[in-house]
Each structure stands twice: as structure tokens, then as C-alpha cells.
Automatic annotation (TrEMBL):
It is a multi-pass membrane protein. It comes from Alcanivorax dieselolei (strain DSM 16502 / CGMCC 1.3690 / MCCC 1A00001 / B-5). This is TonB-dependent receptor domain protein. SUPFAM superfamilies: Porins. Keywords: Cell outer membrane, Ion transport, Iron, Iron transport, Membrane, Receptor, Signal, TonB box, Transmembrane, Transmembrane beta strand, Transport.
């Protein structure tokens, strides 16, 4: 039996199967540039990861376990489920204290990014994640309201798996326990996948416990005319996700496992319940293909932040929308055109909380609405058998409003409206059947989210905050050397105007525009197959992210590094298979130092983590399979910070600022999966 492989221009790794070989790059098709294109005909930095090939023997705690191998991406905060995983791409997204900013996310064709630009990844079923396409750079502008890139995530289905059931159980350090089951079925016109999972994890730090329950379903129905409709259902219940808060450096050195004072006193954390229902329609025609989507998400959210004051908040969210696109060919020109409309409705409230945890009264009650409408088009024109030209554009209309229902402090109604245009164009040169060179340039915008629009002088919108604009350029190469070495190399440069950066006032985080910034860097990925049993891969990112024009408290921060971002990041992995079914993996992640605030006063040292896995596949009667594994994280038991709360507590002396969230020491997880 052959196992899946990683379809990646950077790390095209075979799975842990016997005699697996890399898939040739010219056979890989990508969809992130809004068109179905062969990878070697795509003038953009795109990485396609088969997550199932790399999920064997992993606890699947967070998305970074799969995507650490993608150059250009940086992850923090994987152990604080109340703040969620932070993802940055080429430096965009690092400012987010929680959730994801600066990237556009879609799961199974449906948008996960809200009209105001915010995304959460807590409802993604990591056990069923089949493939992730990562698009960095200029072409991402065709998705609107995201300057850093696009993540397209796809789960497996009844058509990609043999009928049967997969049962999973795992346990490990810090009372990590996870149970999961997935059922796959198919017939002539339908295929089904239904998965459930339960996670319980105390975490190494105090006040960091999480309970998480998920149900995810996918039903594809074939239509008589060759089309198909996919129905998607996701249900998420997080009754407990505690927040240990940030520590000062002295507290972290004294006891990195402790929670901050008010995290314990206030029982900081969040409760989340979410349901999503959606449909995706695909219809091939003689002239091309149509695709449409329709979705609805309901999310209930409650949170106590780890400080007293106006720190207890909640919302009830409705998120819904629709989109339609057509791909076709006119002569030699391949094109795609489309339109989409999405709306976000948040019914929000906020309360004052004393230092002892007593609710003292309401401080906010408002309705927040955002509507995002976009038109986009892209075309690829072959110039000859070696050269092709891709060009595209998008028009976005974003409207945000606040209806203030708490009038005790005045009427803070507000409205903001933006009309934005984004463009990209690129050239691709197939200098050899196995090699390509490309160049790409494009513009993008990124609006503040509702949270970031908060007014430090009162309610409503911050009148001084504007969307940030970016011009992004890149040149790159990818290819295959003799079928044993595959590579990708990209050089990028980004110039941003009105960069959105956080600052703190009276214990709350607010945002301002930072004049101009620059991002220059290199992304390199290599994969080497010395034989059928060994795979060695590497991904290195160098990023020089700096302010060009910005003043803070009257001081110029020109050439200061953007906080929270390392200059160097290196991922190395060696995988080994054995004929009897045993598999092993050893990986290292090295991160250079970062700064904790805009002024670069606090330097946080880098770290290197070594992780390992060993497992065995057992063939059972009737064609069933049992896989057992043992995985260890931070094998060398190094001290490091899993997250830096950038610019936190900026109104306090440096030594009193709670920037630091220590990561756990050596931990282990043992598990098994049965395929029936």
C-alpha cells in the first residue's frame, strides 16, 4: 500500500510508505492563484502540503505541526487556547494578540476570514485535514483584505478514503487526552465523511486547561449533468479554554509554569460555541467551469481577559455570504472572473470587573456589522512555449458600522466605508521541463478589524486609524534536480504604508498607523531523497522587517525592527522508513531573537527545539491496520517562550511588562489509530 505524499515545491516529501517517490512538480495543480494551474506554470510562491502524509504520529494540537515546514510562515501561541494560534506570513499577522490577521483563510472552499479581516482556526478538524495550499506574496491580493497571503485548507472525504472507520486515541504529558473517530462511506453518486473528536489538556502552565469537542461532516453528491454539490457541517464546543496570561521576565525566570496574578484571580479564559453550514457547487461546462458557495456561521463567545477593568466581554456572531466564479478559455487566454459578498453581524457587550473578580456594571452594548463585496478577475496568456503572463485585479467595497445601545457614556455610533483596488501581474519562464523562473508584483490592502478599530478616546471607531496598503514584489525559482532534489527559492520585498501596530493604554490594547515599513527577505526550501527509505528536508526564511517612518512618543523609530518577528527561521527534518513498517522522524526548529516592543528595548533570545517520533504500522486480519506511535516535543528540555505579547503593558516600566508566555519543557504523547 502506498501512502500520500507532500505535494510541495519546497518540501515535496514522500509519506511514510514503502518505496514512495516524490510526485513530479509538473503534475501538481494549485488553485490558490484563483485559477487551476500546473505548479510550474504559476508565477507565485505557492506551497502545497499533504498534511495526512505528515500527520502520522503527530498529536495534531495545532496547525503549525503541519505548516512549520513552509518557509515564510511563523507561528506563536500554540499552547494558549484562549488566545489561539498566531500565524504570520512575511511578517503580516504578527501584531494579532489573538486569532489570525493579514492572511485569508478558506476551509473546503468556504471563507473563514470575516469581512473585517479577522480569522479563527479553532474549528478546523486537524485530524481530517488532507491538504493545505499556502500562497504568499502579490497574487494573494485577489482574495481581498489580506496583505500576507492565503491559506486554503481541504479536509478528506469519502471519495479519497476507502469505506470504513478510523479510530484514534492518544494521551501524554500534562494530562493530554484526545479521542477521535471518523466514518467514511460512498456509493455511486455520494460520498460521506463524518468525524468527531474530544480534547482535554491541562497544559504545563497554571490556568491553561482546555476542553474541546468537534463534529465535522462532508457530503458530496454527484449531479446528473456532471456537476456536484458538497454540503459541509462543523460544530465546535469549547466549554473551557483558560488564559494563563503574560509574565514579566523576572516571573518567567522564577517559575515559568505560573500564571499571571490576575489570570488566577479572575479565572481568565473563554467559552466558545460555533456551528457552520455551507454548500459548494461545482459545474463543468464545455466553455470551462462554474463554482459557487453559500455559507452560514453562528458563534457564541464569552471571555474574561487576564486583567481587571473593562475586561469581561462577549458576542453573538452571525457570519454568512455567497460567491460565484467562472473559469474558462478565450483563444489562448485562460481566465477566471467572480464576485462574492459576505456579511458579519456581532451583537457585543462588555463589563467592568473588579480586581476581586466581581462584575461592576456594563461598559458597552453595541451591534457591529461589516459587509464586504468584491469583484475579481485574472487571466493567463501563453506568450510562447516557454513564457506566460498572468495578470489580475480586484475591487473591494467594505462597510463597517457600530450601533451603540449603551448611551450612559454618550452616543458612540460610527460608520466607516472603504473602496479598495488591488492588482497583480507576473511572468513565468519554463526554462526547462523541470524548472521555472518567475517574477510577480502586486498591491494589497488590509483593514483594521473591529477590535483594532476601538477608540482609545471613547466608543465608536478610532477616527485616526486607516487600512494599511502594501506593494509586494518577488522573484523566484523552483524545480527538480534528477528526481532526487527538489527546491524552491524566492526573494521578496514589501513596502507598506500606514502599517497597523498595537499599543496599550489603561490595560487595553489599541492600534495606530505606523507611517511606513519595509519587509525584505529570502525563502528557501530543499528536499533530498538519497534512497527510497530516507527523506531529508529543510526550509529557511530570512526576513528583514523594519519601520521606515514612524514616531512613538515623539521618538523616531526609523530602522527599528518590527516586534515579534525573527530574522531567521530554520526547519530541518529527517524521516526514515523500515521494511517491517516502523517509521521514525527527527525534526529541529530554530528561531532567532525577536524584540518585544516597537522601541526594541527588550530583546528576547532565540531558541532551538528538537522533536522526535517513532511508530509502527501493524497489518491486521481482513486488511485492517493498526498504527502505534510515540512523539516527543522539546527533547532537549530547553527553556523558551512560546509567545511574546508584543507592546503589552506599554504604560508600565520595562521590568513590569508581561510580555512572556513560556513554552513547556520536554513533553510526550503516545497514541494509536485503527483503520477498519
Amino acid at each position: 500500500m502506498r501512502y500520500p505524499v507532500l505535494l510541495s515545491p519546497v518540501l515535496l516529501l514522500p509519506c511514510l510508505g514503502q518505496g514512495a517517490q516524490p510526485i513530479p512538480l509538473e503534475t501538481v495543480t494549485v488553485t490558490t492563484p484563483r485559477q487551476n494551474q500546473a505548479l510550474l506554470d504559476t508565477p507565485a510562491a505557492v506551497t502545497v502540503v499533504d498534511s495526512q502524509a505528515h500527520g502520522e504520529g503527530r498529536p495534531n494540537l495545532q496547525l503549525d505541526e503541519t505548516l512549520n515546514r513552509v518557509p515564510g510562515l511563523f507561528f506563536q501561541n500554540r499552547y494558549n487556547f484562549a488566545q489561539n494560534l498566531r500565524i504570520s506570513s512575511r511578517g503580516f499577522g504578527a501584531r494579532a494578540p489573538f486569532g489570525v490577521r493579514g492572511l485569508h483563510l478558506r476551509v473546503d472552499g468556504l471563507p473563514y476570514t470575516l469581512p473585517d479581516g479577522q480569522s479563527q482556526v479553532d474549528a478546523i478538524d486537524l485530524d481530517r485535514l488532507r491538504q493545505v495550499e499556502v500562497l504568499r506574496g502579490p497574487a494573494s491580493s485577489l482574495y481581498g483584505n489580506a496583505a500576507g497571503g492565503v491559506l486554503l485548507l481541504n479536509s478528506d472525504d469519502g471519495g479519497s478514503q476507502p469505506p470504513g472507520a478510523h479510530l484514534r486515541v492518544a494521551g501524554g504529558s500534562d494530562d493530554y487526552r484526545k479521542l477521535g473517530a471518523t466514518l467514511y462511506q460512498r456509493d455511486e453518486n455520494n460520498d460521506y465523511a463524518l468525524g468527531v473528536s474530544a480534547l482535554s489538556f491541562d497544559g504545563q502552565r497554571q490556568q491553561s486547561r482546555v476542553e474541546k469537542y468537534q463534529l465535522n461532516g462532508k457530503w458530496r453528491h454527484a449531479l446528473a449533468n456532471g456537476g456536484r454539490i458538497t454540503t459541509l457541517l462543523d460544530v465546535l464546543d469549547i466549554p473551557t479554554a483558560e488564559d494563563p496570561g503574560g509574565l514579566t521576565r523576572a516571573q518567567a525566570h522564577e517559575d515559568g509554569d505560573q500564571a499571571s496574578r490576575f489570570s488566577n484571580l479572575l479565572d481568565a479564559g473563554q467559552v466558545v460555541r460555533q456551528q457552520r453550514l455551507g454548500w459548494v457547487w461545482d459545474q463543468p461546462t464545455k466553455q470551462g467551469a462554474w463554482q459557487g458557495y453559500l455559507h452560514y456561521t453562528h458563534r457564541d463567545f464569552e471571555q474574561q481577559l487576564p486583567f481587571p477593568g473593562s475586561s469581561e466581554l462577549g458576542y453573538e456572531r452571525q457570519f454568512y455570504g455567497t460567491g460565484l466564479r467562472h473559469a474558462g478559455q478565450a483563444g489562448k487566454l485562460n481566465y477566471v472572473v467572480g464576485a462574492e459578498v459576505n456579511r458579519q453581524e456581532d451583537d457585543r457587550d462588555r463589563y467592568q470587573v473588579s480586581a476581586s473578580g466581581e462584575r461592576q456594571g456594563r461598559t458597552a452594548d453595541e451591534q457591529q456589522n461589516a459587509t464586504a463585496a468584491g469583484l475579481f478577475a485574472q487571466a493567463t496568456l501563453p506568450l510562447n512555449e516557454y513564457w506566460s503572463w498572468t495578470f489580475g485585479g480586484r475591487l473591494d467595497r467594505l462597510q463597517l458600522s457600530i450601533d451603540d445601545r449603551f448611551l450612559a457614556d454618550g452616543n458612540d455610533d460610527g460608520h466607516r466605508r472603504f473602496t479598495e483596488r488591488s492588482y497583480s501581474t507576473g511572468l513565468n519562464w519554463r526554462l526547462h521541463p523541470r524548472h521555472q523562473l518567475f517574477a510577480n508584483i502586486g498591491s494589497a490592502f488590509e483593514s483594521p478589524t473591529f477590535t483594532e478599530f476601538a477608540n482609545p478616546d471613547g466608543g465608536g471607531f478610532n477616527p485616526d486609524l486607516e487600512p494599511q496598503k502594501a506593494v509586494n514584489g518577488e522573484i523566484g525559482a523552483r524545480g527538480d534536480l534528477s528526481g532526487t532534489v527538489q527546491y524552491e527559492l524566492t526573494l521578496f520585498t514589501v513596502r507598506t504604508r500606514d502599517e497597523i501596530v498595537p499599543f496599550e493604554q489603561d490595560g487595553r490594547t489599541f492600534y495606530e498607523n505606523a507611517g511606513r515599513t519595509r519587509r525584505d527577505g529570502v525563502e528557501l526550501g530543499l528536499s533530498w531523497y538519497p534512497d527510497d527509505w530516507n527523506r531529508i528536508s529543510a526550509a529557511w526564511t530570512y526576513g528583514n522587517y523594519r519601520f521606515r517612518r514612524f514616531q512613538e512618543s515623539g521618538e523616531s523609530l526609523r530602522d527599528h525592527r518590527l516586534p515579534g518577528l525573527p530574522e531567521h527561521q530554520l526547519y530541518l527534518e529527517w524521516q526514515r522508513d523500515y521494511r517491517g513498517g516502523t517509521f521514525t522522524s527527527l525534526e529541529t526548529l530554530m528561531i532567532s531573537s525577536v524584540y518585544a516592543e516597537n522601541g526594541n528595548d527588550t530583546r528576547v533570545g532565540g531558541y532551538a527545539l528538537v522533536n522526535g517520533r517513532v511508530g509502527h504500522r501493524w497489518r491486521l486480519a481482513g486488511g485492517n491496520q493498526l498504527t502505534t506511535y510515540l512523539a516527543a516535543h522539546n527533547l532537549l528540555d530547553r527553556d523558551y517562550y512560546a509567545n511574546i505579547r508584543i507592546n503589552a503593558n506599554s504604560d508600565r516600566p520595562l521590568a513590569s511588562r508581561g510580555y512572556f508566555e513560556p513554552g513547556p519543557g520536554r513533553t510526550w504523547v503516545a497514541g494509536m489509530e485503527i483503520k477498519l
